[in-house]
């Protein structure tokens, strides 16, 4: 689950600083807090007392990823030792899916009143809220141990996104200043995300909600506040009440995988008219037929396919990953409807480094394709660009990067 992914995410740190260097950098960090951060915090209404409590005993955390110590040009990654991308199906391992489902059903019974109220207020289904809660923190069962001010301070001082994390650090100080939680109890992930719904501090200030009526939005220890906060977040990001997130489908060979993407939507009745059917054998719900639907094939022709609704892209506002949004929708359906695994089979594709995919993306860009940036991540623009290249070169479109394509595209 998420805590395992986050642990694996701590993949590298800068090795360019000796112990002596680190002592000097630590002194620079303390000076930065004292002058730069305090000046900004004071201008935004933070008291000296809150500032002192937040950073009492706080030092740099050198184990965090993406660190760029002063005097170095960039973060130094560890050498890759294994392929970074395999089949997207690995994201849906049985332990994660079944665990999130079984505990989710228990939480559905335990917090049925709160879930029902939030669903009534926001239109966000209880099963979706539960699935996000499970994915983010194991329904509050995963210990969140990091000191938020150490994480945000370290990343604000010396990371590849220092300005972003400095702003989040100020937001965290505002949370403490308002008395939502004592500074020494503000725990976060290694990336600075707070509490059971894993909100960044700025999102807490905007979307955290009081679900139990005690006048506080306690996303660290209150299940009711966590449920209400997740529902409010999705509602404020445009969840469409009365619509589903999506449906697993069968895509006939006559329908190109290059039609994938949120910019190629059409009414679901039109997708059905092309011969796309639900794997369950049921027709698409009548209330969905007039609404926009989008083809989503996270592994191209090498895995399950879906027709998703605008709500799928609301889920991506919580986490930008297609697979994350798909996991949430799938687990939610398992919790409420008892559905089983996807009918489509995840093939063993992949075996690529991000650098391989980035090289393919650059080659496709030179051909005039929009891959969404050469970031080494096979998003929908990259997937369909591969398919368009395949079709242009008289190949069957599969719309997913594979090892044999690297040389063919880059030679």
Automatic annotation (TrEMBL):
Gene3D superfamilies for the chain: 1.10.530.10, Bacterial muramidase
Limits of the Transglycosylase SLT domain: 28-333
GO biological process, one term: peptidoglycan catabolic process
Molecular function GO labels: peptidoglycan lytic transglycosylase activity
UniProt key word Phosphoprotein: no
Signal sequence range: 1-19
This protein's UniProt keywords: Signal
Pfam families, sorted: SLT_2 (PF13406)
CDD domains named among the record's database cross-references: Slt35-like
Top-level taxonomic group: Bacteria
Name of the molecule in the record: Lytic murein transglycosylase
């Amino acid at each position: 689950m998420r805590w395992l992914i986050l642990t694996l995410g701590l993949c590298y740190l800068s090795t360019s600083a000796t112990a002596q260097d680190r002592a000097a950098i630590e002194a620079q960090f303390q000076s930065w807090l004292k002058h730069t951060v305090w000046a900004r915090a004071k201008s935004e209404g933070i008291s000296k007392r809150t500032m002192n409590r937040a950073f009492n005993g706080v030092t740099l955390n050198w184990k965090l990823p993406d660190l760029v110590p002063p005097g170095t040009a960039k973060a130094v990654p560890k050498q890759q030792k294994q392929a970074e991308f395999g089949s997207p199906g690995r994201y849906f391992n049985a332990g994660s899916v079944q665990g999130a489902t079984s505990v989710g059903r228990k939480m559905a019974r335990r917090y049925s009143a709160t879930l029902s109220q939030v669903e009534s207020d926001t239109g966000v289904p209880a099963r979706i809220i539960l699935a996000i809660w499970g994915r983010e923190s194991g329904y509050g069962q995963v210990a969140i141990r990091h000191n938020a001010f150490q994480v945000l301070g370290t990343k604000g001082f010396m990371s590849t996104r220092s300005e972003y994390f400095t702003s989040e650090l100020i937001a965290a100080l505002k949370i403490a200043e308002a008395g939502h939680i004592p500074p020494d109890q503000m725990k976060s992930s290694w990336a600075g995300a707070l509490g059971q719904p894993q909100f960044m501090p700025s999102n807490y200030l905007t979307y955290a909600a009081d679900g139990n009526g005690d006048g506080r939005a306690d996303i660290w220890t209150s299940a009711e506040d966590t449920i209400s906060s997740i529902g409010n977040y999705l509602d404020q990001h445009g969840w469409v009440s009365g619509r589903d997130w999506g449906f697993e489908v069968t895509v006939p060979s006559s329908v190109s995988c290059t039609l994938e993407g949120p910019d190629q939507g059409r009414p679901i009745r039109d997708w059905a008219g092309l011969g796309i059917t639900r794997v369950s054998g049921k027709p698409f719900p009548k209330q969905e037929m007039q609404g926009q639907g989008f083809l989503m094939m996270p592994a191209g022709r090498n895995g399950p396919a879906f027709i998703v609704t605008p709500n799928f892209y609301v889920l991506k506002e919580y986490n930008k990953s297609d697979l994350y949004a798909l996991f949430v929708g799938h687990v939610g359906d398992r919790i409420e409807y008892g559905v089983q695994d996807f009918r489509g089979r995840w093939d063993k594709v992949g075996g690529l480094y991000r650098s391989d995919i980035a090289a393919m993306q650059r080659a496709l860009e030179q051909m005039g394709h929009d891959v969404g940036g050469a970031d080494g991540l096979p998003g929908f623009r990259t997937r369909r660009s591969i398919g368009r290249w395949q079709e242009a070169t008289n190949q069957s479109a599969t719309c997913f990067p594979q090892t044999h394509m690297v040389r063919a595209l880059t030679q």
